[in-house]
TrEMBL record:
PANTHER family the record matches: BLL5714 PROTEIN
Keyword terms, alphabetized: Membrane, Transmembrane, Transmembrane helix
Keyword Transmembrane: yes
Transmembrane parts of this sequence: 21-41, 53-72, 92-111, 117-138, 159-177, 192-212, 233-253, 259-283, 295-320, 326-346, 367-385, 391-411
Classification via InterPro entries: Low_temperature_requirement_A
Pfam families: LtrA
UniProt keyword Membrane present: yes
Lineage summary: Bacteria, Bacillati, Mycoplasmatota, Mollicutes, Mycoplasmataceae
Designated name of the protein: Low temperature requirement protein A
Amino acid sequence: MILGNVSSFWNKPKLIKLQRPASLLELFFDIVVVALIGGIGHKLISEFQHNEYTWHSISFVVLQTLSVLLIWRTITMYSIKFEVHDLRHRLVIISCMLPMSLMATAGYVHNSHNDAYTIYLNTISYAMLMVVVAYILLSAARFNKEDKFFYWHLMIKGLARVVAFVLIIIKIIVPIISEGPNSLGDPKWKEFFVAMWASEFIIQMIADMYSFTKKYMCHFPTISRHLLKERYSILYIAFLGEMLIQVISSFAGEKSHSANSFIFLLGSIFQIFLMFWLYFDLLNYNHLKKSYKSMWIYTFVMLLHFFSMLFISAGLSLIIQKHARPAILLLAIGNAIHWTTSKLVLYSFKSFNRDTRYLRPKWFHSVLIGLFIIGIVTSSVLAYTYTSPHILIWTVIGLQITTIVLLVVTLKISIKKYKDMTLEEFDKIVPTIKQDW
């Protein structure tokens, strides 16, 4: 950074024509997002531990997690496309991380859903985050007026955050005017809070979905499938690290241990490692299609993918802490969403790799989906009926290992079948990648 040249350290947000890699600051931003989701997960675990969960509290956890992931996606794609490595870029990212850190703190407070001051901390921090995101998007719109399409694209997303901020303020003011400043923890306001948060999330999601129209993709040709894979992969791996820390801390926090708790600890760690293995294979042996429809599907499916990991993490922690029934429920839901979204992500990829001459057979996806449906449904019912989490955990691990074995077998068969082909010959038999933007 050369301070003598103003443009080198304070640049107006302009569309970057050449794609740049993520900065270390943006990677730190990813870690803060994962810490925030970890706080939400801790809140979920605490409520099940003390039998304080209600449909209001679960709805709140779901909506807050999805809202945070949506904001992460918006800021990530914005900063990479409109910001360079300068002072403004640092201020933009740090101004998002500060309220997120406060929201994460609120998640680690015991009985946070009934404590008025913790609710103030979480809600006001979220309002601050909306202000920052709205400012970022609207200022970018202001400096891109010459491009009408991008001007309205950024304006719509920014105004959606302004509306969300207004709804957050209403959510705080109405209970205070009605019953005083300590009324936010009153259970009778829970439905109102959930309804307002759902409204904020839906407004933001609709505004962001505008980014995935065909016209937008054609107008924005520099988004790369490699960039998407890189950014989502970084968050996914950071999330797996958070899951591992959550499981280990749950085991360490127990006053006494038994053979069962050691078995659950090993099973939980094993499942997390296998989740990484499968995702690593997915990236190595697949090509993301470049059609706008698959990009739209990929983005929102990956958000659900991350959301499912919250439930899996909470379920594994609760099993170690000997809360069997809620753990089975969370694991069943989390694994069902995770495996379903995994299959959707698999379908959004072309299953071949030119360098290794790998071409996945057509029956592969069907076999995986059949195994998934039979395994998850059967093991979940049996585990809940007999209050035996062992059944569910080891079934999921068995499904993961089976998937890995299938990957290895198809890889070996494919390499043996096509190893003597030239690249030109191999290209003639692989699926055509749609190039519509």
